[in-house]
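One chain shown below:
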Amino acid sequence: MWFSWRAFENIVVVCLCFAAIHPVTASVSVVDLLSSSPDFTILIRVLQRTGLIPVLNMDRNITFFAPPNSVLEKVPPSVDLPTLLRYLIVTDPIVSTNFTEHEQERVFFSELRAPAAPDFPTPIKISRIRSVTGAPDDGTGHRLKIGDANILRHDWLADNGVIHVIDRLVDIPETLCHEILERASQAGNTGFMSRIFLMHPWICILLAESQDTATALLPVNNAFSVFSDIELAYILSSGGHDDRLKLLGEHFLYSSIYRQNDTNGFGNIYPALSGSLVNMEATDNGRIRFNGEVNSLETDLIYQNGVIHTLPSLLTSYEYFEFTPRKYLHGLNAIRFINELEFHELDDNLDSLTARQTIFAPIDSSNTDSPSSDNTLLYHYSHFALPNLENRVIPSKLQLDSMNAFFQHVKVTNTKDGVFINNYARVCQQPVVVGETVIIAIDRPLLLPQSLSLVAGSLANELISVGIFRQLGLLDDLQVRGWTIFVPDDSAWESIGSVRKYFLKSPEIARQLFYSLMLKTPIYFDDITDNEHHYQDVAGNEITLRRGDSLDSVIITAPFTSYSQTIMLSDTDVLFDSGVIHTVKSVPIPEYIRITPRQLLKAEDVNVYVDLLDTTDLHSPVLADSSQYIILAPIDTALVFDNITAGMVNLVTQLGLHVLRRRSIRAGTFLDGISVYDSLVPGISMQVIQSMRDEYYILRIRSAQLTEMRLPVRILSHGQSTDGAEVYVVDRVLPMSLLVPIAGPKSWWQRHGVLVALGAAAGILTISVLSLFWFWVIFQGGRTWTRHRLITERMKNLIPFNRFQHNQPHINDMIISEESEDEDDDDDASENTPFLTSGNLGSRVTGEGAVASAEDTASTAERVELPTRTD
């Protein structure tokens, strides 16, 4: 045996000698260092009470983030210090040199086993940041940071580990699902993805029950900008359940995966919850690159049972979701409509992107019901992809017997109040295009068009036509099958006046008219083009339709004839259950319906005038079927009142006064006032010169002798025959007095004598008045001047004489007396001889004598100046 006791003894001796040369020294533990400082007396007592002293003494290569007394003194009693202190014990030695240039933060694991994952150590994240001036650092200008706690003293080395003194305690992280819940409720940067996580709580339940860890990749909200609002609404709807799971499965990984897991720098592959594989590669800037193209925004956000990385975009592409019409209907909140389609098995094309169709989707509302029958559901479909919301009709998928195998249509109407479908359901938003499918969201389900009788009864401006339809029994819904009906509006009937009354009094003629307005094919406005299309009316007549020059006109032509009419449309595509109605602004009367002047007059109950015409030779040209005269027919009461009878000598003249003929090419109607018309009475013409209210017109009647009369006439009704005769029913008889000024030629004196006589009388009267005026002016003016001169002379002579005649009267009294005597004695004295009464002088003298006596007296008397009167 090669091994001997001698050799064993030698080995023992060598060991004892070595031990003697190198004696064993006692080691310094983490607890020893803490005990040597008075700053940790409270910490030592807590460690003793919690039983953590053996852990700190016996574990090797640990790191302890030790809070000093100043921190522990502020801790409330409710804080679980043993758990917090265990979380601060890391199972790896951490010094500043552990961090490389490209790795400024790192995840480590503590001694704590959190309740959410008791089989896994709780992660703790340490960062190395640049230290501010004056703050503690690790000797290189940097310092470590754990959570919100700063390091007051770095790298305090013990034999079994490292101590870092911190300025505050560090909270234990929450669970992964708790953090996602917080993010969802706060609507933060990752709120949308967090909402999707919470819509499937079984993930958190499964994670809690398995007590395992996981990695959640949360794209930020902007990552979902690739989806439209409707697509996002679909993802959050009940119909988006499967796609949400696919989205979650691509962004939820088994176990906690940190950046440091890429130890070699070439990346690692990890399985996702969906079964796909995700490649994770550490980058030089401290981030993670996923699948070679998506770099993380936030990295290694640690929690008790997992980790979160935020991403700027999704790990899946847009095409991954394969959006279909069904998904868009969910996004538009048309859930009940989808359920009805699925129940009736009419949802085949909802998952097709190539099916060309339009879907009118009623969105869910609390006050509306969803379509619940096959017919109503098919009426919400169309084989036609609606390009826009302009006014139009499109065929639905509904095909009924009442439409005679034609598809029922849906009408789109664009108004100032919005866009409506069938004038009932409002369009909620612009059409959505998914593949070849157009989806139009409406606020309520579409109703099937009503019966003809109900639709016709609701036409507000076509009451006359509807009344005729009803009287003729043409509103029978069983009779009408797939028809097009042109319905004249009330203004159209009023414009033809007497013709309307003729149709009302002639049922068979009215039936022929309305049969020509009914076609045996449903024709919608868009079907009428510039090219002619042949159709058949209810009576079996062939007609063609084409678009007119204006956008709202249609030209109707009867083949093989010259008959062609242009009708203006006022309302188009009024749908009913077995066809379509177009309302028109005129009454298109077919060529085979002949209307004569006699029929129009009879329709207006103008019987007396017609009977009188029949007694004369005028009836042949005036009432002929081909007549083109203008007839002003007085009503019966007017003729009776004016005693117009067949026995009148001038009856032909009286009746001919009411019939006008055109001078030249027809231009407008008589009431337009454009042309002058000659009556059947030679030399008399008429023209409408003014239109007044209540159908009153002013007629200007002229004769060949240039005499003119204006006569107000009320037009009670009017109509036009097939060949162009115009019939007007008037309220009065044109008087025979119109004929008096033009009964025969007159002489010049007969025509102008009265005017000459009146002019002469006026001249004589004017001359007489002027003569009398000048005579009075001259007579009165001469008399006044003579009297004034004589009085002046007398005053000059009497002034000196009065000095010696104190008993004479005052000169004013003499003047008055003189004037009185002069007026009383006009027969004896001349008008120029005044009388002067003074003292003893009482004799009558002439003017010359009076002047002479005054002069003689003045020669012998002394002239004395009289004082001036001041009174």
